[in-house]
Design a protein that fits this description.
Family: Belongs to the DNA mismatch repair MutL/HexB family.
CATH superfamily of the largest domain: Histidine kinase-like ATPase, C-terminal domain
Distance between the termini: 64 Å
Number of strands: 15
Bound molecules: adenosine-5'-diphosphate, magnesium ion
GO molecular function: ATP binding; ATP hydrolysis activity; ATP-dependent DNA damage sensor activity; mismatched DNA binding
Keywords: DNA damage, DNA repair
Strand order of the largest sheet: 5-4-3-6-2-1-7-8
Helix content: 25-40%
Protein name: DNA mismatch repair protein MutL
CATH topology of the largest domain: Heat Shock Protein 90
CATH class of the largest domain: Alpha Beta
Strand content: 25-35%
GO cellular component, one term: mismatch repair complex
Largest sheet: 8 strands, mixed
Number of domains: 2
């Protein structure tokens, strides 16, 4: 199983940031409202994620570490309506096959915490009692220690960490209902308290996109039929030549979508010079039946069934807001 898992890991685990992505998505799926992340040496030495989510029961720990074991799909019909982020049941098995992974967890209703670790070629899982508050911690030590070819592809600690930081920034801008902490080599890099009020959300945007963005962006909210667009858009006169915050979310997922980017550019239109970059943090909510999110395996692309309609709605919602900002 180790070899099979390592091959699967080749698809899931490219670099430390992809490990962090999988683990954080599990924490979000578990309903966590607090996620603390410790990184050492860009993640190659240590990735530790602690959440206060629903936890994993003692008797489920072994299963959580085995391949194609997911608690998130009951039957094939569920596939059509996946709302959780992960569903292939591959991440933990893959990551533990290319690192020293320890899983410690305690569901709220369980008297004590338990810890699991898979080791060796047969990936035998050992389980023992541990101390842990309600929730889950996953420690990934020495990533790729047993796959030297993969380890060689890692860039500098600084670069690897910057990918992790970017990922957390992206997630923190879409999950204001979660408090985030990110540390690198024992230093606090991000400390983002829960942001459940308009004021607190504004503060978080200032922390993540900068004060200038927070002060010179207009908050918009606009709906049309099954679509709703909300978020912040930067006043044209405040747009700089280096790109600042440029984030688009569709139904809560970050997307790099051509159609949306095109619509945003069109809305700014003549208001920007060739050098100026738009700034935006936008959330499009649309009836799930109107989109396919699995066009691209990394799920950064989306296909809208009524592409023209979505495009024109975004252009008109943003043009209105920008026209007001320009006054
Ligand atoms: P998937 O997310 O695709 O189901 P994973 O390999 O990422 O598969 O995780 C396997 C299982 O372990 C999940 O289905 C879930 O039951 C459990 N799990 C993993 N991480 C957590 C967590 N942080 N909190 C609660 N359960 C978790
Ligand atoms: Mg998962």
């Amino acid at each position: 199983p180790q070899l099979a898992n390592q091959i699967a890991a080749g698809e899931v685990v490219e670099r430390p940031a992809s490990v962090v992505k999988e683990l954080v998505e599990n924490s979000l799926d578990a309903g966590a409202s607090q996620i603390d992340i410790d990184i050492e040496k860009g993640g190659s030495k240590l990735i530790r994620i602690r959440d206060n989510g629903s936890g994993i029961a003692e008797q489920e720990l072994v299963l959580a570490l085995s391949r194609h074991a997911t608690s998130k799909i009951g039957n094939l019909d569920d596939l059509a309506q996946i709302t959780s982020l992960g569903f292939r049941g591959e991440a933990l098995a893959s990551i533990s096959s290319v690192s020293r992974l320890t899983l410690t967890s305690k569901p709220a209703g369980q008297a004590a915490a338990w810890q699991a670790q898979a080791e060796g070629r047969d990936m035998a899982v050992t389980v023992k009692p541990a101390a842990h508050p309600d929730g889950t911690s996953i420690e990934v030590v020495d990533l790729f220690f047993n796959t030297p070819a993969r380890r060689k592809f890692l860039r500098t600690d600084k670069t690897e960490f910057s990918h992790i930081d970017e990922l957390i920034k992206r997630l923190a801008l879409s999950r204001f209902d979660v408090s985030w902490q990110l540390n690198h080599n024992g230093q606090s890099v991000r400390r983002l308290p829960l942001a459940n009020s308009d004021n607190a959300r504004q503060k978080r945007v200032a922390l993540l996109c900068g004060k200038a963005f927070a002060e010179q962006a207009a908050y918009i909210e606009n709906s049309y039929g099954v679509m709703k667009l909300s978020g912040w858009i930067l006043a044209p006169q405040a747009c700089q030549s280096q790109p600042g915050c440029q984030y688009c979310y569709v139904n809560g997922r970050m997307m790099r979508d051509k159609l949306l980017n095109h619509a945003i550019r069109q809305a700014y239109g003549e208001r920007l010079t060739a050098e100026q970059q738009p700034g935006f943090v936008l959330y499009l909510q649309i009836t799930p039946a109107e989109v396919d999110v699995n066009v691209h395996p990394a799920k950064h692309e989306v296909r809208f069934h009524q592409a023209r309609l979505v495009h024109d709605f975004v252009v008109s919602a943003l043009s209105d807001a920008l026209a007001q900002l320009a006054n």
